[in-house]
Amino acid sequence: MRILTKEEAKFIDQWAPTKGHLPLALLMENAGRGVAEAIVTATEEENRSLDVVIVAGKGNNGADGLVAARQLEEWGHEVRVVIPCDDKSGSPLFQQQLAAIEALEIPVLTLADGDVFEAADVIVDGLLGTGLQGELQGPILELLDRMEAHVDTYPDTLLVAIDVPSGLNANTGAVAEGTLGMDLTVTFGAPKQGMCLYPGKSYCGEIIVKGLGFAWETALLDESNEHFPTELITAELIDALLPEREPTYHKGSNGHTLIIGGSDGMIGAPLLAAEAAVYAGAGKVTTVVPSDCLRMLQTKIMPEVMTGSFGNLLHLRMHSSEKQAVAIGPGLGRNEETTTLVKNFMTTTEVPLVIDADALWALGHMDIVGHEFSKRERPVIMTPHLGEFARLTGLTIDSIEANRIEVARQFAIKYQVVLVLKGAPTVVASPDGLVAVNSSGNEGMGTGGMGDTLTGIIASLLGQGLEEVEAAMAGVFLHGAAADFLYETRHVGFMPSEVARQVPYIMTEVVGSE
Ligand SMILES: NC(=O)C1=CN([C@@H]2O[C@H](COP(=O)(O)OP(=O)(O)OC[C@H]3O[C@@H](n4cnc5c(N)ncnc54)[C@H](O)[C@@H]3O)[C@@H](O)[C@H]2O)[C@@H](O)CC1
Ligand SMILES: [K+]
């Protein structure tokens, strides 16, 4: 599902009345009616006239609120409007909608009018939308404080945000001091990027998307649009990507995946990756480890996985030839000899490649090796967590977290790689500038070995014929969805191997959902 930045929302806003011949007031009418409809649907069971307070700022977010107020009154609800202060300044559409509200004699109040929220069933936050700048202050902050105090005393009051909760940065998901957690956020066209990122995601409550009255995607196809797209990875998206199997398929049709990793004391990592590759449907899986670890691996690994060992570059090249996908790094260790060896291998091989864990460490700074990757016919997939990504780029973890989507996008474009930047949420960035944000997964996944499992799933899907970016998106979604399935019965203590075991069921459910 496409998600939007504030710049894209603004682009749509400007395209509509100019190139689209659609007045902004028409979009606003659809948006405001969408909010009113969502409120009625959410309170349907009560089947009575509602007491609704619309809190409207002076931009177009507030103007949407005024449309909703007008609509709800027409439908027989008791409506009043609260604005931050008495002067009637504001955006042209705010002023126009306010004039309509006044003509209809819908009460317009300010904080000076005492307890404006008394007896409210629903409070609608139309203070600020995508136009938020800086911190919340003045009467806006005071209104939000009063709303919070009211909801603390009357927790049954339904709190509804228009477009985004006021104070939430629509691009980064950062929240200003004073932002309130909502029961419902009614957003327009598509969810805003910041609603899919933490902490913003936890402030939205249920997200309802309402249409603007035209296919806004057309606006973004305009040649003057220079914004790169961002998507949310959902079950529907993955459904379209997963490989379908013909009745005649055999193990040779489903790809041979190779996992290279392991070192003394870390044999579990390649084992977890290999077993996850089996569960994700690989036709054949082979794991190769340094010679001195081979016996240990063989005593522990499932019988479905073939094993072997390596000691030099020739071995790695031999093992990887005729494999449909190779993942390198899990548990590899950081001794100098191995580091040099795998770095030579990674920068000279053309096999479809997933680079994880200690193999990322072996690369050092990306500026030194990046040009080798950008020359490849097929991009490599890199799967760093924040710490590994910080080392590759020289950026601080804080600066990555503050804008993970854009940082990931620039990295993937610059080095022409598919980047899986792990975290909450994991994002997948592709060399053409697309970023996809994962929607599955949960906090129970914070266990050693979880990343090895992900690597195995991605490599398995790559081996089954998915393109790099598809394998990365499908892999992160299935991995998270498998953990979400475990989360239904417990919130801690998932083992990565258990997550891997759920993957076939999730794949069946997703593919079967057509
Ligand atoms: N994208 C679209 O196509 C559409 C957008 N619409 C609405 O338009 C909204 C955006 O409208 P605007 O661009 O007018 O912006 P907003 O209404 O979000 O905010 C702008 C106003 O807030 C003030 N402001 C900004 N930051 C502040 C802060 N920290 N403290 C106090 N005041 C602050 C500004 O001075 C200005 O008055 C969207 O969120 C959405 O609700 C809808 O009308 C439908 C169409
Ligand atoms: K809002």
Bound molecules: ligand NAX, potassium ion
> Which stretches of 5+ consecutive residues score pLDDT under 50?
none
* DSSP E strands, number: 18
Oligomer: single chain
- Helices, by number, come to 19
Could you tell me the CATH topology label of the largest domain. UDP-N-acetylmuramoyl-L-alanine:D-glutamate ligase
Rounded mean pLDDT is: 96
Specify the structural class: alpha/beta
CATH architecture of the largest domain: 3-Layer(aba) Sandwich
Q: How would you write the strand order of the largest sheet? A: 1-9-18-17-16-15-14-13-10-11-12
InterPro entries: Carbohydrate_kinase_pred_CS, CARKD, Nnr, Ribokinase-like, YjeF_N_dom, YjeF_N_dom_sf
Keywords: ATP-binding, Isomerase, Lyase, Metal-binding, Multifunctional enzyme, NAD, NADP, Nucleotide-binding, Potassium
Protein name: Bifunctional NAD(P)H-hydrate repair enzyme
Binding site for K(+): 61, 125, 166
Highlighted features:
7-stranded parallel beta sheet, Rossmann fold, UDP-N-acetylmuramoyl-L-alanine:D-glutamate ligase, elongated, binds potassium ion, 514 residues, alpha/beta, 2 domains, binds ligand NAX
